[in-house]
Design a protein that fits this description.
Strand order of the largest sheet: 1-2-3-4
Number of strands: 18
Oligomer: single chain
Distance between the termini: 39 Å
Shape: globular
Radius of gyration: 17 Å
CATH superfamily: YVTN repeat-like/Quinoprotein amine dehydrogenase
CATH architecture: 7 Propeller
Length: about 210
């Protein structure tokens, strides 16, 4: 089916059966009926600026679109499919990935240039804190709600684990290859999956290789 230009990520509301697609070039979000596979509407808003990642809280019926060039997160009301607010991040943050814990109504956004994960309270749509990652370049985020743990894929073979109750880093997970990119989780099995890209590149100190 045809959506906007350069669709970059997709998210599903399992309660409303709607599918949301972030279109990075034309700065829109396409809304699809998951039962008929028909495009219901295309959301345009001044807050959209290269919406690169998108996530849904099916419980609150809120959709969060991460604006990579806009250093912000647009909040969409799923009942009206309209933008109802904007959450601003650090300037030049290169916001990249997003994950949601529907149980706690907390949103997690990775900021590549700042090497942090921003924690947002979904009840107030306000920033709670920033968690510095152990290495650098955080990308994909996955959440295991039952454990209240947030998994963050990073460049250079590291996955950070954040305790969602305290927003403190737990022991990191290292692997042998490439760059951590996309991430997702299976709540039933407790397994987390990551996409690795690029060749093995394991460097020494963080200070030596910052961009």
């Amino acid at each position: 089916m045809a959506v906007g230009t350069a669709p970059l990520e997709i998210a599903v509301n399992y309660n409303t059966k709607k599918v949301y697609v972030a279109n990075g070039v034309d700065d829109t979000v396409s809304v699809i009926d998951g039962l008929t596979d028909a495009v219901l509407t295309t959301i345009s808003d001044v807050s959209f600026n290269v919406p690169q990642a998108i996530a849904v809280n099916s419980t609150t019926n809120r959709i969060y679109a991460v604006n990579n060039w806009g250093d912000s997160v647009s909040v969409i009301n799923g009942a009206t499919d309209s933008v109802i607010g904007t959450i601003f991040l650090d300037a030049g943050s290169d916001a990249d990935g997003i994950g949601i814990n529907e149980t706690t109504n907390m949103i997690y956004v990775s900021e590549v240039n700042d090497d942090v994960v921003t924690v947002i309270n979904g009840a107030t749509d306000s920033v709670v804190t920033e968690v510095s990652v152990s290495y650098w370049d955080p990308h994909g985020i996955a959440v295991i709600e039952s454990a209240n743990k947030i998994y963050v894929a990073q460049d250079y073979a590291y996955i950070d684990v954040i305790n969602g109750a305290t927003n403190i880093l737990l022991p990191e997970i290292s692997y042998q290859f490439g760059f951590g990119w996309g991430a997702d989780a299976n709540e039933r099995t407790g397994k987390v999956y990551f996409i690795e890209t690029g060749p093995p590149r394991r460097f020494g100190s963080r200070q030596q290789h910052r961009h």
